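We give the chain.
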Amino acid sequence: MEVAARQAMATSTAPGLAVALPGPQGEPPGRGVLSPAGVRLALTAAPATDGRWGLGYGLGLLPGGDVLAYHEGANHGWRAGLALLPDRRAGIVVLANGDAGGDAIDAVVQRWVASGEATIARHTRVVRSRWSRGPRRGRS
């Protein structure tokens, strides 16, 4: 994959993470792109989804009860994963080259969640339900 394509993926995925979380200077979720109410709606389970889907996000629960929101993307030659822990104001975006990059993304996100670094931090990161363990509302 060309460097320009990887850069385009990073610059198009990171704002999706940033807009869903409060800003580092106390800016509300939405950052002027969406209203805070619109962000809450996107991160709330839609009717008839068994609690599994918001608007554009898959939803799940971590064993401790934290909500996990996620979104994935893929095309020939690349994979992308965005995961959010909105209550912790944390998220992660992981990009991988190759059609089999999903396994690498899963491993990175699982390690991030298990490490305890998925806490309120000065930086912004994201997760998805198959990365969580235990009871959850997310996709199986």
Notes: Helices lie at 3-20, 36-42, 101-115.
